[in-house]
Amino acid sequence: MFERAKRVEPAGVSYRIRYLEPYPFFVKESKGAQLIDLDGNVFTDYWCTHMAMILGHGHPTVLEAIKTQAENGWHSGLSHELEVKHAEAITKHVPSAEMVRYASSGTEAMLFAVRLARTFTKRSKVAKFEGNWHGAYDPLQIALKPPFDVPASGGLTEGSQQDTIVLPYNDLNGFLDQVKHEKLACVILEPVLTAAGMISAEEEFLKGLRDFCDETGALLIFDEVVIGFRLGLGGAQAYFGVKPDLTVLGKIIGGGLPIGAVCGRLDVMSHFDHTKYFGLDYAHHGGTFSGNALTLAAGLATIDVLEHSPVYEYIDRLGKQTREGLNSMFRGAGFPAQVTGLGSLFAIHTTDKGPLKDARSYVLCDHKQSRGIFTFLLDNGILILTPEMLHGCISYSHAESDITHLISTIERYVKMSGGNGR
Description:
By secondary structure, the chain is α/β, with parallel strands linked by helices. The protein has helices at residues 2-8, 60-72, 81-93, 106-121, 158-161, 172-179, 203-216, 235-240, 266-269, 293-308, 311-333, 367-379, 400-416, and strands spanning 27-31, 34-37, 42-45, 99-103, 125-129, 164-167, 184-189, 192-193, 199-200, 219-224, 246-250, 260-264, 338-340, 345-349, 382-383, 390-393. It folds into two domains: 2-58 and 310-416, Aspartate Aminotransferase, domain 1 (Alpha-Beta Complex), CATH 3.90.1150; 73-308, Aspartate Aminotransferase, domain 2 (3-Layer(aba) Sandwich), CATH 3.40.640. The protein is 36% helix and 16% strand. It has a seven-stranded mixed β-sheet, with helices on both faces. α11 (311-333) packs parallel to α13 (400-416). The radius of gyration is 21 Å and the shape is globular.
Protein backbone atom coordinates (compact mmCIF):
# COMPACT_ATOMS: atom_id res chain seq x y z
CA MET A 1 0.00 0.00 0.00
CA PHE A 2 2.89 2.35 0.76
CA GLU A 3 4.41 1.68 -2.66
CA ARG A 4 1.06 2.57 -4.25
CA ALA A 5 0.77 5.69 -2.09
CA LYS A 6 4.20 6.94 -3.13
CA ARG A 7 3.03 7.03 -6.74
CA VAL A 8 0.13 9.39 -5.98
CA GLU A 9 1.05 11.21 -2.72
CA PRO A 10 4.31 13.06 -1.96
CA ALA A 11 6.34 10.81 0.40
CA GLY A 12 3.41 8.38 0.26
CA VAL A 13 1.45 10.17 3.01
CA SER A 14 -1.25 12.81 3.31
CA TYR A 15 0.57 14.68 6.12
CA ARG A 16 4.24 14.66 7.09
CA ILE A 17 3.54 13.55 10.65
CA ARG A 18 2.03 10.31 9.30
CA TYR A 19 5.31 9.23 7.76
CA LEU A 20 6.67 6.57 10.12
CA GLU A 21 10.01 4.92 9.36
CA PRO A 22 10.72 2.54 7.82
CA TYR A 23 7.22 2.90 6.37
CA PRO A 24 3.84 4.00 7.70
CA PHE A 25 1.16 1.51 8.56
CA PHE A 26 -2.26 1.98 7.01
CA VAL A 27 -5.23 1.85 9.37
CA LYS A 28 -8.09 -0.44 8.40
CA GLU A 29 -10.15 -0.14 11.57
CA SER A 30 -10.13 2.02 14.70
CA LYS A 31 -12.13 1.09 17.77
CA GLY A 32 -11.85 2.14 21.39
CA ALA A 33 -8.17 2.58 22.21
CA GLN A 34 -7.00 0.39 19.35
CA LEU A 35 -5.94 0.73 15.72
CA ILE A 36 -5.81 -2.26 13.36
CA ASP A 37 -3.72 -2.06 10.20
CA LEU A 38 -4.17 -3.75 6.82
CA ASP A 39 -2.00 -6.67 7.96
CA GLY A 40 -4.13 -7.24 11.06
CA ASN A 41 -1.59 -5.82 13.53
CA VAL A 42 -3.19 -4.23 16.59
CA PHE A 43 -1.82 -1.06 18.16
CA THR A 44 -2.79 0.65 21.39
CA ASP A 45 -3.29 4.26 20.34
CA TYR A 46 -1.89 7.09 22.47
CA TRP A 47 -2.13 9.61 19.63
CA CYS A 48 -5.94 9.54 19.57
CA THR A 49 -6.38 11.30 16.22
CA HIS A 50 -4.03 14.17 17.08
CA MET A 51 -5.50 14.32 20.62
CA ALA A 52 -9.08 14.74 19.31
CA MET A 53 -10.60 11.38 20.29
CA ILE A 54 -11.03 12.01 24.01
CA LEU A 55 -13.66 9.25 24.23
CA GLY A 56 -11.73 6.84 22.02
CA HIS A 57 -12.54 5.63 18.52
CA GLY A 58 -16.10 4.75 17.57
CA HIS A 59 -17.76 5.69 20.87
CA PRO A 60 -21.33 4.38 20.55
CA THR A 61 -23.02 7.68 21.51
CA VAL A 62 -21.04 9.62 18.93
CA LEU A 63 -21.45 6.92 16.29
CA GLU A 64 -25.23 6.92 16.73
CA ALA A 65 -25.34 10.72 16.41
CA ILE A 66 -23.35 10.56 13.17
CA LYS A 67 -25.61 7.85 11.72
CA THR A 68 -28.76 9.77 12.61
CA GLN A 69 -27.49 13.02 11.12
CA ALA A 70 -26.20 11.31 7.97
CA GLU A 71 -29.73 10.10 7.28
CA ASN A 72 -30.97 13.68 7.58
CA GLY A 73 -28.17 15.11 5.42
CA TRP A 74 -24.52 15.68 6.15
CA HIS A 75 -24.20 19.23 4.83
CA SER A 76 -26.65 21.69 3.29
CA GLY A 77 -24.44 24.77 3.09
CA LEU A 78 -27.09 26.71 5.02
CA SER A 79 -27.93 27.43 8.65
CA HIS A 80 -29.28 24.62 10.82
CA GLU A 81 -30.31 23.94 14.40
CA LEU A 82 -27.20 22.00 15.36
CA GLU A 83 -24.92 25.02 14.95
CA VAL A 84 -27.05 26.97 17.42
CA LYS A 85 -27.11 24.11 19.93
CA HIS A 86 -23.38 23.53 19.58
CA ALA A 87 -22.55 27.23 19.98
CA GLU A 88 -24.79 27.33 23.06
CA ALA A 89 -22.79 24.43 24.52
CA ILE A 90 -19.51 26.25 23.84
CA THR A 91 -20.71 29.50 25.42
CA LYS A 92 -22.07 27.57 28.39
CA HIS A 93 -18.72 26.03 29.27
CA VAL A 94 -15.87 28.22 27.94
CA PRO A 95 -15.41 31.33 30.14
CA SER A 96 -14.30 33.64 27.31
CA ALA A 97 -16.96 32.51 24.84
CA GLU A 98 -19.86 34.92 24.38
CA MET A 99 -20.23 34.24 20.65
CA VAL A 100 -18.89 31.56 18.28
CA ARG A 101 -17.99 31.28 14.60
CA TYR A 102 -17.02 27.98 12.96
CA ALA A 103 -14.30 26.92 10.54
CA SER A 104 -13.12 23.60 9.12
CA SER A 105 -9.78 23.35 10.94
CA GLY A 106 -7.73 24.89 13.72
CA THR A 107 -5.45 26.58 11.17
CA GLU A 108 -8.42 28.21 9.46
CA ALA A 109 -9.90 29.33 12.77
CA MET A 110 -6.56 30.87 13.78
CA LEU A 111 -6.46 32.80 10.51
CA PHE A 112 -9.87 34.28 11.27
CA ALA A 113 -8.94 35.04 14.88
CA VAL A 114 -5.88 37.05 13.82
CA ARG A 115 -7.89 38.87 11.16
CA LEU A 116 -10.55 39.69 13.73
CA ALA A 117 -7.99 40.98 16.24
CA ARG A 118 -6.41 43.22 13.62
CA THR A 119 -9.83 44.53 12.58
CA PHE A 120 -10.88 45.28 16.16
CA THR A 121 -7.63 46.96 17.28
CA LYS A 122 -6.71 48.64 13.96
CA ARG A 123 -3.20 47.30 14.50
CA SER A 124 -1.09 44.84 12.50
CA LYS A 125 1.54 43.31 14.77
CA VAL A 126 1.08 39.88 16.29
CA ALA A 127 3.06 38.43 19.20
CA LYS A 128 3.61 34.66 19.29
CA PHE A 129 5.93 32.50 21.38
CA GLU A 130 8.79 30.13 20.65
CA GLY A 131 7.69 26.56 20.14
CA ASN A 132 3.97 27.36 20.01
CA TRP A 133 2.21 25.53 17.20
CA HIS A 134 -0.74 27.41 15.68
CA GLY A 135 -1.26 25.53 12.44
CA ALA A 136 -0.12 26.38 8.92
CA TYR A 137 -1.16 30.07 8.70
CA ASP A 138 1.88 31.88 7.21
CA PRO A 139 2.32 34.65 9.84
CA LEU A 140 2.41 32.03 12.61
CA GLN A 141 4.60 29.42 10.85
CA ILE A 142 7.68 30.76 12.56
CA ALA A 143 9.95 29.72 15.47
CA LEU A 144 8.36 26.29 15.81
CA LYS A 145 11.41 24.47 17.17
CA PRO A 146 15.10 25.23 17.71
CA PRO A 147 16.89 26.80 15.95
CA PHE A 148 14.06 29.32 15.97
CA ASP A 149 15.55 31.52 13.25
CA VAL A 150 15.40 28.79 10.59
CA PRO A 151 12.32 29.07 8.31
CA ALA A 152 9.73 26.40 9.01
CA SER A 153 8.96 25.90 5.32
CA GLY A 154 9.64 27.10 1.85
CA GLY A 155 7.18 29.58 0.41
CA LEU A 156 7.02 31.71 3.55
CA THR A 157 7.76 35.25 2.45
CA GLU A 158 9.33 37.90 4.63
CA GLY A 159 6.27 40.02 3.99
CA SER A 160 3.93 37.40 5.43
CA GLN A 161 5.88 37.34 8.71
CA GLN A 162 7.13 40.90 9.02
CA ASP A 163 4.39 41.79 11.51
CA THR A 164 5.02 38.73 13.72
CA ILE A 165 7.13 39.22 16.85
CA VAL A 166 8.60 36.02 18.32
CA LEU A 167 8.94 35.96 22.10
CA PRO A 168 10.28 33.66 24.86
CA TYR A 169 7.73 31.38 26.54
CA ASN A 170 7.30 31.45 30.32
CA ASP A 171 9.52 34.54 30.50
CA LEU A 172 7.35 37.51 31.40
CA ASN A 173 10.25 39.95 31.82
CA GLY A 174 11.70 38.91 28.47
CA PHE A 175 8.30 39.38 26.85
CA LEU A 176 7.74 42.83 28.38
CA ASP A 177 11.21 43.99 27.42
CA GLN A 178 10.75 43.04 23.77
CA VAL A 179 7.28 44.51 23.29
CA LYS A 180 7.47 47.67 25.40
CA HIS A 181 7.60 49.89 22.31
CA GLU A 182 5.19 47.84 20.17
CA LYS A 183 1.54 48.40 19.34
CA LEU A 184 0.23 44.86 19.26
CA ALA A 185 -3.03 43.67 17.78
CA CYS A 186 -2.86 40.46 19.76
CA VAL A 187 -0.78 38.13 21.88
CA ILE A 188 -1.27 34.48 20.91
CA LEU A 189 -0.16 31.44 22.87
CA GLU A 190 -0.82 27.85 23.79
CA PRO A 191 -1.51 27.75 27.55
CA VAL A 192 0.17 24.34 27.41
CA LEU A 193 2.85 23.68 24.81
CA THR A 194 1.63 20.64 22.90
CA ALA A 195 3.95 19.64 20.04
CA ALA A 196 6.85 21.12 22.05
CA GLY A 197 6.38 18.63 24.88
CA MET A 198 3.31 19.22 27.08
CA ILE A 199 4.90 22.02 29.10
CA SER A 200 2.49 24.25 31.02
CA ALA A 201 2.54 28.01 31.08
CA GLU A 202 3.32 29.35 34.52
CA GLU A 203 0.41 31.04 36.26
CA GLU A 204 2.24 34.34 36.76
CA PHE A 205 3.24 34.35 33.10
CA LEU A 206 -0.38 34.03 31.99
CA LYS A 207 -1.56 36.67 34.45
CA GLY A 208 1.22 38.99 33.31
CA LEU A 209 0.13 38.63 29.70
CA ARG A 210 -3.46 39.34 30.72
CA ASP A 211 -2.38 42.50 32.55
CA PHE A 212 -0.27 43.65 29.59
CA CYS A 213 -3.17 43.24 27.17
CA ASP A 214 -5.53 45.08 29.52
CA GLU A 215 -3.09 47.96 29.79
CA THR A 216 -2.20 48.26 26.09
CA GLY A 217 -5.42 47.34 24.30
CA ALA A 218 -3.98 44.22 22.65
CA LEU A 219 -6.21 41.13 22.56
CA LEU A 220 -5.12 37.99 24.38
CA ILE A 221 -5.79 34.88 22.27
CA PHE A 222 -5.57 31.37 23.67
CA ASP A 223 -4.94 28.61 21.16
CA GLU A 224 -6.92 25.78 22.75
CA VAL A 225 -7.27 23.64 19.65
CA VAL A 226 -5.65 20.75 21.54
CA ILE A 227 -6.11 21.81 25.16
CA GLY A 228 -9.72 22.97 24.87
CA PHE A 229 -12.01 20.31 26.44
CA ARG A 230 -8.91 18.23 27.33
CA LEU A 231 -8.45 19.81 30.77
CA GLY A 232 -12.16 20.06 31.43
CA LEU A 233 -15.18 21.57 29.71
CA GLY A 234 -13.89 25.06 30.52
CA GLY A 235 -10.54 24.38 28.92
CA ALA A 236 -7.16 25.75 29.99
CA GLN A 237 -8.61 29.18 30.76
CA ALA A 238 -10.83 27.69 33.44
CA TYR A 239 -8.00 25.43 34.63
CA PHE A 240 -5.55 28.33 35.05
CA GLY A 241 -8.11 31.00 35.95
CA VAL A 242 -7.04 33.43 33.21
CA LYS A 243 -9.66 34.53 30.67
CA PRO A 244 -8.50 35.51 27.16
CA ASP A 245 -10.36 37.84 24.82
CA LEU A 246 -10.55 35.23 22.06
CA THR A 247 -10.18 31.47 22.07
CA VAL A 248 -9.47 29.19 19.13
CA LEU A 249 -10.91 25.68 19.46
CA GLY A 250 -10.89 22.51 17.38
CA LYS A 251 -10.42 18.74 17.57
CA ILE A 252 -12.52 17.52 20.54
CA ILE A 253 -15.42 19.91 19.91
CA GLY A 254 -16.00 18.16 16.57
CA GLY A 255 -16.10 14.65 17.97
CA GLY A 256 -13.24 13.56 15.71
CA LEU A 257 -14.50 15.20 12.51
CA PRO A 258 -12.97 18.32 10.89
CA ILE A 259 -13.66 21.54 12.80
CA GLY A 260 -12.26 24.81 14.07
CA ALA A 261 -13.93 27.63 15.97
CA VAL A 262 -13.27 31.19 17.10
CA CYS A 263 -15.09 32.34 20.21
CA GLY A 264 -14.77 35.29 22.52
CA ARG A 265 -16.00 38.65 23.74
CA LEU A 266 -19.24 39.98 22.28
CA ASP A 267 -17.80 43.37 21.30
CA VAL A 268 -14.91 41.73 19.46
CA MET A 269 -16.86 38.91 17.83
CA SER A 270 -19.47 41.41 16.62
CA HIS A 271 -17.00 42.58 13.98
CA PHE A 272 -17.82 39.37 12.11
CA ASP A 273 -21.39 40.74 11.85
CA HIS A 274 -21.86 42.17 8.36
CA THR A 275 -25.19 43.72 9.38
CA LYS A 276 -23.42 45.97 11.90
CA TYR A 277 -19.98 46.62 10.46
CA PHE A 278 -18.77 47.55 6.99
CA GLY A 279 -15.53 48.24 5.17
CA LEU A 280 -12.42 48.10 7.35
CA ASP A 281 -14.54 47.64 10.50
CA TYR A 282 -15.83 44.31 9.21
CA ALA A 283 -13.77 41.11 9.49
CA HIS A 284 -14.68 38.66 6.75
CA HIS A 285 -15.35 35.10 7.82
CA GLY A 286 -16.72 32.26 5.75
CA GLY A 287 -16.19 28.73 4.48
CA THR A 288 -18.20 26.20 2.52
CA PHE A 289 -18.05 23.60 5.28
CA SER A 290 -18.15 25.92 8.30
CA GLY A 291 -20.64 24.57 10.81
CA ASN A 292 -20.88 21.20 9.06
CA ALA A 293 -23.92 19.33 10.39
CA LEU A 294 -22.25 15.94 10.65
CA THR A 295 -19.33 17.40 12.59
CA LEU A 296 -21.53 19.33 14.99
CA ALA A 297 -23.71 16.28 15.62
CA ALA A 298 -20.58 14.34 16.59
CA GLY A 299 -19.34 17.28 18.65
CA LEU A 300 -22.59 17.67 20.55
CA ALA A 301 -22.69 13.95 21.30
CA THR A 302 -19.11 14.12 22.60
CA ILE A 303 -19.88 17.13 24.81
CA ASP A 304 -22.96 15.34 26.15
CA VAL A 305 -20.82 12.39 27.25
CA LEU A 306 -18.26 14.76 28.80
CA GLU A 307 -21.06 16.47 30.72
CA HIS A 308 -22.71 13.34 32.07
CA SER A 309 -19.97 10.73 32.46
CA PRO A 310 -16.88 10.73 34.75
CA VAL A 311 -14.55 11.13 31.78
CA TYR A 312 -12.14 13.67 33.26
CA GLU A 313 -11.86 11.92 36.62
CA TYR A 314 -10.93 8.72 34.79
CA ILE A 315 -8.53 9.97 32.11
CA ASP A 316 -6.79 12.40 34.50
CA ARG A 317 -6.17 9.55 36.94
CA LEU A 318 -4.65 7.42 34.19
CA GLY A 319 -2.64 10.40 32.96
CA LYS A 320 -1.19 10.93 36.42
CA GLN A 321 -0.47 7.20 36.69
CA THR A 322 1.39 7.34 33.36
CA ARG A 323 3.54 10.33 34.29
CA GLU A 324 4.35 9.18 37.82
CA GLY A 325 4.97 5.59 36.78
CA LEU A 326 7.35 6.51 33.98
CA ASN A 327 9.21 9.13 36.04
CA SER A 328 9.66 6.66 38.89
CA MET A 329 10.91 3.98 36.51
CA PHE A 330 13.35 6.37 34.77
CA ARG A 331 14.77 7.55 38.11
CA GLY A 332 15.14 4.03 39.44
CA ALA A 333 16.97 2.90 36.31
CA GLY A 334 19.17 5.97 36.13
CA PHE A 335 17.83 6.58 32.63
CA PRO A 336 18.11 10.19 31.36
CA ALA A 337 14.46 10.92 30.70
CA GLN A 338 11.57 12.71 32.35
CA VAL A 339 7.85 13.08 31.73
CA THR A 340 5.85 16.29 31.60
CA GLY A 341 2.16 16.99 31.12
CA LEU A 342 -1.06 17.44 33.02
CA GLY A 343 -4.51 15.94 33.01
CA SER A 344 -4.61 13.18 30.41
CA LEU A 345 -1.58 14.52 28.51
CA PHE A 346 2.03 13.36 28.75
CA ALA A 347 5.36 13.78 26.97
CA ILE A 348 8.66 11.95 27.36
CA HIS A 349 11.78 14.11 27.21
CA THR A 350 14.98 12.08 26.80
CA THR A 351 17.06 14.25 29.12
CA ASP A 352 17.56 14.48 32.87
CA LYS A 353 18.46 18.17 32.66
CA GLY A 354 16.01 20.90 33.51
CA PRO A 355 13.88 22.62 34.44
CA LEU A 356 11.77 22.08 31.33
CA LYS A 357 9.86 25.35 30.99
CA ASP A 358 9.83 26.12 27.27
CA ALA A 359 10.51 24.76 23.80
CA ARG A 360 14.25 25.26 24.19
CA SER A 361 14.22 22.00 26.15
CA TYR A 362 14.05 20.33 22.72
CA VAL A 363 17.81 20.80 22.25
CA LEU A 364 18.50 19.03 25.57
CA CYS A 365 16.90 15.80 24.41
CA ASP A 366 18.65 12.84 22.85
CA HIS A 367 16.55 12.53 19.71
CA LYS A 368 18.23 9.29 18.68
CA GLN A 369 17.08 7.86 21.98
CA SER A 370 13.57 9.22 21.43
CA ARG A 371 13.41 7.51 18.05
CA GLY A 372 14.66 4.32 19.67
CA ILE A 373 11.80 4.36 22.20
CA PHE A 374 9.30 5.22 19.47
CA THR A 375 10.39 2.34 17.25
CA PHE A 376 10.48 -0.15 20.13
CA LEU A 377 6.95 0.83 21.15
CA LEU A 378 5.69 0.55 17.58
CA ASP A 379 7.30 -2.87 17.20
CA ASN A 380 5.42 -3.88 20.36
CA GLY A 381 2.03 -2.63 19.27
CA ILE A 382 1.99 0.85 20.86
CA LEU A 383 1.62 4.11 18.93
CA ILE A 384 2.91 7.35 20.41
CA LEU A 385 4.00 10.35 18.35
CA THR A 386 6.23 11.95 17.30
CA PRO A 387 9.54 10.06 17.00
CA GLU A 388 11.68 13.06 18.00
CA MET A 389 9.30 14.41 20.67
CA LEU A 390 7.30 11.64 22.30
CA HIS A 391 3.93 12.97 23.36
CA GLY A 392 0.52 11.42 23.70
CA CYS A 393 -2.74 11.31 25.60
CA ILE A 394 -5.24 9.05 27.32
CA SER A 395 -8.77 8.47 26.10
CA TYR A 396 -11.87 7.28 27.96
CA SER A 397 -11.44 3.95 26.13
CA HIS A 398 -8.00 3.18 27.60
CA ALA A 399 -7.84 0.67 30.43
CA GLU A 400 -5.54 0.74 33.43
CA SER A 401 -3.90 -2.38 32.00
CA ASP A 402 -2.97 -0.35 28.90
CA ILE A 403 -1.04 2.08 31.10
CA THR A 404 0.71 -0.73 32.93
CA HIS A 405 1.66 -2.26 29.60
CA LEU A 406 2.97 1.07 28.27
CA ILE A 407 5.21 1.58 31.31
CA SER A 408 6.48 -2.02 31.33
CA THR A 409 7.24 -1.89 27.60
CA ILE A 410 9.31 1.28 27.97
CA GLU A 411 11.01 -0.32 30.98
CA ARG A 412 12.04 -3.22 28.76
CA TYR A 413 13.61 -0.75 26.36
CA VAL A 414 15.45 0.96 29.21
CA LYS A 415 16.86 -2.37 30.42
CA MET A 416 17.93 -3.30 26.89
CA SER A 417 19.80 -0.01 26.60
CA GLY A 418 21.72 -0.71 29.80
CA GLY A 419 19.66 1.65 31.94
CA ASN A 420 21.65 4.74 31.07
CA GLY A 421 20.40 5.42 27.58
CA ARG A 422 23.66 4.46 25.86
